[in-house]
Amino acid sequence: MMMKLAIMQPYLFPYLGYFQLIHSVDRFVVFDDVNFIKKGWVNRNNLLVNEAPLLFTVPLLGASQNRTIKDIQVSNEGDWKSRLLRTLAMSYGKAPCYVPVMSLVEEVLSATDCTISELNTKAIRAVCKHIGISTVIIPSSAIYNAGELKGQERILHICGQEQASHYHNPIGGIELYDRDRFLANGTQLFFLRSLLPVYQQWSDSFTPGLSIIDVLMFNSSSEVLRMMDDYELC
């Protein structure tokens, strides 16, 4: 029986290609029991402000590359949530899908006393529900063991536990994994290359690779669902 699996760290309202990866598989593992990486995409992403990318960040408590993502709390200090919502209102208030997407973001940000993994997983699930992606989403810390394994061996261990026939990974990881090693484990390895479809933003110029929030603001859920198939597997 064929079962497709993908594994990724929990990113903050990640870009379109992240959701294409989720859509391409049956089960998606949120890799939250690995070490946090500073200046990555776990607690920051880009929005379109004045027709240029602007980085927004969720502040964290005690963030360290010596701690796992699941153990790092979101800071409740300051008014970062209000600032983010104001930025969205000013930058996307006239976008065609502003009202439902703003409600989605507000609901995600209503979480209190949570880790960055919990916040991001909530956001990922909310976006999948909004679009219509039915992939099963599981945090790695919930059911998988063998945290002492690293890199490819940890991925192979999870594939074995899930009896995955296919493993999908973003194209950026093509140098990290060995197809023959996966085949020996009973899993075919594929790399997903997102084609990042162009959609109408504010002007004829297009800024790709922004947070999924940008995609949702300018496109209906059915239009975004159609974009989920704009990728190649190699």
Quick gist of this model?
The chain is 36% helix and 19% strand. The chain has 234 residues and is α/β, with parallel strands linked by helices. It has a 6-stranded mixed beta sheet with strand order 7-2-1-8-9-10, sandwiched between helices.
Proportion of strand residues: 15-25%
Topology pattern, helix = H, strand = E: EHEEEEEHHHEHHEHEHHE
Mean pLDDT: 96
Q: State Rg.
A: 18 Å
Q: What is the strand arrangement across the widest sheet?
A: 7-2-1-8-9-10
Secondary-structure-derived class: alpha/beta
Number of helices: 9
Biggest beta-sheet profile: 6 strands, mixed
Q: Based on DSSP secondary structure assignment, what is the total number of beta strands?
A: 10
Percent in helix: 25-40%
The CA-CA distance between the termini, in Å, is: 21 Å
Assembly type of the shown chains? Answer: single chain
What's the number of structural domains? 1
Q: In terms of per-residue confidence, which ranges show pLDDT below 50 for 5 or more consecutive residues?
A: none
